């Protein structure tokens, strides 16, 4: 069924498709990067376990204090923009950076490439969540170097829901379990091949061994 929300046509299947694969893909990439960077995993577990102090249920105001958790998720969204291509059709003739673009042209914006652009990001090829700790750059569509949710009127309407899901899930799994790669696999051997598609997920699903953490 299609509904009109603020003049935009959005169907229930748009919401379902837009909201499931994307969220799980971001979580899988976040865990991949944490397994590849054990020092960051350690720092994150210290932050989450310290703030929760043995409490099993995570509340909204606990998440507000988890600054490294938020930075890890932002860095994952920068480095692994899960919906890489945004599409727009120009409503009138425009000139962008010296290029004349006729009305009715479809423009494809590659948010994956923007997230890795060395002109926008220092050490763009490295996973460094700390870059966001003292930065006001956010993913809400106002900072054009970080647009994993798009920008403008058609940007993702599910940002709040997505972030709540990812923050709760990631905080919970790093609080309650310690994680390592299976069969003595080393961080540097972790296969990072991407599977291109509407969402860019891991080509091979991530395998990790969980050990329950004793509080
Ligand atoms: C990390 C998770 C998510 C990511 C990375 C993501 C990303 C995106 C992107 C890039 C777009 C296109 C925006 C544009 O063209 O400017 C989009 C659209 C959309 N997203 Fe999300 N999304 C996520 C989660 C969700 C969730 C949880 C929901 C619903 C509960 C949702 C619902 C939608 C819908 C309905 C659209 C179409 C909006 C329109 O056409 O106006 N998304 N999303």
UniProtKB/TrEMBL annotation:
Annotated binding of heme, by residue: 156
Topology in the lipid bilayer: Single-pass membrane protein
Superkingdom to which the source organism belongs: Eukaryota
InterPro entries: Cyt_P450, Cyt_P450_CS, Cyt_P450_E_grp-I, Cyt_P450_sf
Alphabetized Pfam families for the sequence: p450
Heme among keywords: yes
Keywords for the protein's UniProt record, in alphabetical order: Heme, Iron, Metal-binding, Monooxygenase, Oxidoreductase
One example GO MF annotation: monooxygenase activity
Gene Ontology CC entries for this record: membrane
PROSITE patterns registered for this protein in UniProt: CYTOCHROME_P450
Keyword Iron tagged: yes
Cofactor: heme
Gene3D superfamilies hit by this protein: Cytochrome P450
Compartment list: Membrane
Main location: membrane
Family: Belongs to the cytochrome P450 family.
Name of this chain's protein: Cytochrome
Organism from which the protein derives: Forsythia ovata
């Amino acid at each position: 069924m299609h509904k009109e929300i603020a003049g935009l046509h959005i169907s229930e299947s748009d919401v379902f498709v837009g909201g499931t694969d994307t969220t799980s893909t971001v979580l899988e990439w976040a865990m991949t990067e944490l397994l590849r960077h054990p020092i960051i995993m350690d720092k994150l577990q210290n932050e989450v376990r310290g703030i929760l102090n043995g409490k099993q249920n995570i509340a909204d105001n606990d998440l507000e204090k988890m600054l490294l958790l938020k930075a890890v998720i932002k860095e994952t969204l920068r480095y692994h923009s899960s919906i890489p291509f945004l599409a727009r059709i120009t409503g009138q003739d425009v000139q962008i950076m010296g290029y004349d673009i006729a009305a009715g042209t479809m423009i494809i914006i590659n948010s994956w490439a923007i997230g890795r652009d060395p002109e926008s990001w220092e050490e763009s090829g490295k996973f460094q969540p700390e870059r966001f700790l003292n930065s006001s750059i956010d993913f809400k569509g106002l900072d054009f170097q970080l647009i994993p949710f798009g920008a403008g009127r058609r940007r993702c309407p599910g940002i709040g829901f997505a972030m709540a899901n990812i923050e709760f899930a990631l905080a919970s799994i790093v609080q309650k379990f310690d994680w390592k790669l299976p069969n003595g696999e080393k961080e540097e051997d972790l296969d990072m091949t991407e599977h291109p598609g509407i969402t860019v997920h891991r080509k091979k699903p991530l395998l990790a061994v969980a050990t329950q953490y004793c509080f």
